Amino acid sequence: MSMNADPQELAKFGDLAHKWWDPEGEFRPLHDLNPLRLDWIDAQVRLPGKRVVDVGCGGGILSESMARRGAEVLGVDLSVKPLRVAQLHAMEAGLANLAYREVAVEALAAEAPASFDAVTCMEMLEHVPEPASVVRACAALVKPGGWVFFSTINRNAKAFLLAIVGAEHLLKMLPKGTHEYARFLRPSELSRFARDAGLDVVEFKGMEFNPLSKRYRLTADTSVNYLIACRRPG
Ligand code: SAH
Question: How far apart are the C-alpha atoms of 68 and 57, rounded to whole Å?
Fold first, then answer.
């Protein structure tokens, strides 16, 4: 099977892996976002005791926080260094209900279909050559009645200005070259991938960054960063 991954993207995350858990470092936006998305996911899934797979988990910011809420979490990624960082961090925290694996989501879906109560795939689709294939694999991994969550960046002039010019060049919140405009996904495109994969699209939420307070909040405005909740019919 040819791999649905971009080696340059994986290397980019590998090179920064040692900074993953620095709350002031290159991954600060993920740290700042995490409480919001965690609460949103938990409200729908009710994490305690649930089996969750976190696709494109990186250094494990979301995976670990879901495990702390009592879910049994598997984090998967194709970049080795972030996975090592994630594993080490989980070991130090003594979390037994958290495991990590280097495996493509498509391969995992073939190996363990319909095995998870929830699938999370955050800030990952915009780094992948064929996002629709990832969405299909996520849909295959979830049990009937289970939840699938994605987050990514919209593709329009405002998203270009805020997510690339603003975040990478002006505010320097993210390293230059973190995001490529052409890989951003409109909510309409992501919904179509989800529906084509047999999922019901339940909800969209915008995640808005306030550069003055440096805080994120959930809004109805999906014009830049957004989350989508889907459900596999039961
Ligand atoms: N989901 C995490 C990390 C986001 S960073 C969070 O939101 O906190 C994007 C991650 O996607 C990186 O860890 C990168 O290695 C991973 N990634 C990129 N392409 C991938 C692919 N084809 N398969 C799996 N993971 C991939």
Answer: 15
| Candidate CATH numbers 3.40.50.150, 3.30.70.100, 1.20.1110.10, 3.40.80.10; the one for domain 7-197 | 3.40.50.150
* Amino acid at site 140: A
Pocket test for ligand 1, best of 124, 133, 178, 180 (most atoms within 8 A of CB): 124
Task: Please tell me the distance between residue 79's alpha carbon and the centre of ligand 1 in angstroms.
Answer: 8
User: Residue ranges of the domains in the chain?
Assistant: 7-197
Q: pLDDT tens-digit profile of 112-155?
A: 999 999 999 999 999 999 999 999 999 999 999 999 999 999 99
Does the model's pTM come out above 0.85? yes
User: What is the rounded CA–CA span in Å between residue 154 and residue 167?
Assistant: 14
Ligand 1 residue neighbourhood (C-beta within 6 Å) = 4-5, 9-10, 13, 30, 56-58, 61-62, 77-79, 82, 122-124, 127-128
